[in-house]
Structures are given as structure tokens and as C-alpha cells.
Design goal:
3 helices, 86 residues, mainly alpha
Length: 86
């Protein structure tokens, strides 16, 4: 069992509690550093999106920050050069 599988097992069924914890932490940080409230909210939203991706509730969303390249597809063919114009 890989590390990501263990994380998925821990998150599954606890999404609400995890998101509540993220909200609680972000509220506390916003009270301490109110000048950065917008950045804290953005980070909180991203963290909640990751929880959704890990739990499989947002399967249509792309993976966070690591786009995957096609594995078994040949490279795209380039068109032949155009004939020279006289």
C-alpha cells in the first residue's frame, strides 16, 4: 500500500471534519494577521479542493500542480513543408 493510498484511507469519510479544521485554522490565522485575509482564504479554498480530490468527490478536476503526460501515445506528426513559391 502506497503513501497516497494511506492518505486516501485516512480522508475517506472524514471530509467534513477535515474541512471544518481547515476553516478553524484559517479563521485563527486571519485574526492574527488580518492584512493577509484574502491570501489565507485562497489557501483555505485550495486545501479544501485537495481534500475533495483525495476523497474522489471531485474526480473531474485535474491533479494539483502535476499535470501528467500521455504515456503510450506517439508524438504528433508534423505536416510536410509547403512547396516553395516561385
Amino acid at each position: 500500500m502506497g503513501f497516497l493510498d494511506k492518505i486516501k484511507g485516512l480522508v475517506k469519510g472524514r471530509e467534513t471534519e477535515i474541512k471544518g479544521g481547515i476553516d478553524k485554522v484559517s479563521d485563527t490565522v486571519e485574526q492574527k494577521v488580518p492584512a493577509h485575509a484574502d491570501k489565507i482564504d485562497a489557501a483555505s479554498d485550495k486545501a479544501k479542493d485537495v481534500v475533495d480530490q483525495i476523497s474522489g468527490k471531485d474526480a473531474a478536476a485535474p491533479a494539483a500542480s502535476t499535470p501528467k503526460a500521455p504515456v503510450d501515445e506517439p508524438p504528433a506528426a508534423t505536416p510536410p513543408p509547403a512547396p516553395p513559391q516561385p
